[in-house]
């Protein structure tokens, strides 16, 4: 009596082939992927987009300025800010990218239509007269020779559906301040106001 029919079947292995042996002996060369071209900041971030079949769009990912450990600490003056919540941190990241894009639009280095999806319709139409149509219309104080570098950004809650955001950016030898308001409209946070950027010479 044989019990071979009760034993599990051995795994099937393909017959030995010289072609497969030669292919296995060849070293595997990893395909090198070329880096992405420089796009202003050089890196981008995926964020939610409205009124589009695609739920993602691109915003410039801000580069934070690196400080030396031997640099003297800045003396903080004025009333301390309230601790930021999780939503404020999320809005800060989005507004940092919008602030960089806004400065690049004001210097005619980016299309104005790229800002339309992040601001309300009323805010966008209020900003249109300030946007230059070509590089010759750029004001001297708004010229950019290098991408803006984010120094800091802070969002403060006014009430459950309104935040105020201030972004501080370095543009070569000048420091610019961009102030924004974000409001919850139909379940999505949109920028409803952007003040004209204030600029001053860097004192460092």
TrEMBL record:
<dbReference type="Pfam" id="PF20060">
    <property type="entry name" value="DUF6459"/>
</dbReference>
<feature type="region of interest" description="Disordered">
    <location>
        <begin position="14"/>
        <end position="37"/>
    </location>
</feature>
<protein>
    <submittedName>
        <fullName>Ornithine cyclodeaminase</fullName>
    </submittedName>
</protein>
<dbReference type="InterPro" id="IPR045596">
    <property type="entry name" value="DUF6459"/>
</dbReference>
């Amino acid at each position: 009596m044989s019990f071979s029919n009760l034993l599990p079947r051995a795994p099937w292995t393909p017959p030995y082939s010289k072609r497969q042996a030669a292919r296995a002996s060849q070293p595997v060369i990893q395909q090198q992927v070329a880096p992405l071209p420089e796009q202003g900041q050089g890196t981008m971030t995926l964020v939610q987009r409205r009124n589009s079949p695609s739920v993602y769009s691109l915003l410039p990912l801000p580069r934070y300025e690196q400080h030396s450990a031997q640099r003297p600490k800045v003396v903080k003056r004025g009333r301390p800010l309230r601790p930021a919540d999780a939503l404020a941190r999320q809005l800060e990241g989005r507004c940092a990218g919008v602030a960089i894009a806004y400065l690049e639009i004001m210097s005619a280095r980016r299309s104005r239509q790229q800002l339309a999806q992040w601001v309300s319709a009323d805010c966008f139409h209020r900003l249109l007269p300030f946007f230059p149509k070509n590089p010759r219309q750029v004001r001297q104080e708004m010229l950019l020779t290098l991408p803006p570098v984010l120094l800091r950004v802070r969002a403060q809650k006014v009430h459950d559906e309104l935040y105020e955001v201030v972004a501080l950016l370095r543009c070569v030898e000048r420091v610019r301040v961009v102030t924004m308001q974000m409001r919850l409209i139909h379940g999505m946070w949109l920028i409803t106001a952007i003040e004209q950027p204030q600029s001053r010479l860097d004192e460092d």
